[in-house]
Amino acid sequence: MKMGEDVRGAHSERPQKLVLCVLCGLPAAGKSTFARALRHWLQQELGWAVGVVAYDDVMPEAVLEKASASPLPSQWKLFRQELLKFLEHFLLAVINGCQMSAPPSKTEAMWKDFITCLKDQDLISSAAVEAQALYPLTKTAVSRPLLLILDDNFYYQSMRYEVYQLARKYSSGFCQLFLDCALETCLQRNAQRPRPLPAETIHQMGNKIEKPNPEKNAWEHHSLAVQSPACASEARLKLTDLLITALENPIKHVEENLEQKETDRLIGSTNILHQADQTLRRIVSQTMKEAKDSSPPGSPVLGTLQARTLEWVAISFS
């Protein structure tokens, strides 16, 4: 297959198998190095198409500079959500076997870097230009199992859950890889970078990070903690098993049937009223029996109790 070959026409003949893989861990844990090595290995050994989307490579430069100087601003969250929208447009094109459309509104610098990221990995045609409305996918992107690795810290569970929701929306596979690296090692590596983060920022992330917890969260079931660096054959076997399992077991997307939910609610309400009616009838019956046993025949007290009880029942179920 030639580089840059693209698909412009109809839907693919079979459903495309794809996995969204969250690669998380502290800054300088070795995520990007690991992602590149994993991409090369999967392409060579399994023949998969693999795309690595490193958030640091796509986020606007100004946002990265602010993040280096202070805690992540709210603007960072907005850009993360926008990047997920970009990914959604790409997923739609892959699933439907058609060209990728540009979002109606977007941060131009981010979109340009996102397109460059996909082109460099032979996922969209190298002939595509950033300003066009439609972007042809390559045959690589739609003819092989596709793994998209999202490379970021993802130190909050909520950040990773957003990716899970995207996978569920399109019935895709989902998995998580947590790069487990000692804090001191991360600090040492960070200090050697051309543009290091403040050590305090890494310390704060180390205190806040919420590691994948499959025992607590069912949606994190396909997760694996990988030691850094991960070179052992045992780790590679576990990793392969995780990725294949995620690929072969996409998340089921269950549409909410609002009409059925409303019907179930009404049935539930009716059942509750019926139970209350039965309980109230038993109470009234018992009260009447006790009053009858303790009052002489023809007592006005008994007649008054009967009348008020019937009135109460009528009001309660009117």
From TrEMBL:
GO molecular function, one term: kinase activity
InterPro entries: KTI12/PSTK, L-seryl-tRNA_Sec_kinase_euk, P-loop_NTPase, Ser-tRNA(Sec)_kinase
Superkingdom, natural source: Eukaryota
Gene3D superfamilies named among the record's database cross-references: P-loop containing nucleotide triphosphate hydrolases
Transferase found in the keyword field: no
Record's keyword terms, sorted: ATP-binding, Nucleotide-binding
Keyword Protein transport part of the UniProt annotation: no
Name of the featured protein: Phosphoseryl-tRNA kinase
Gene name per UniProt: PSTK
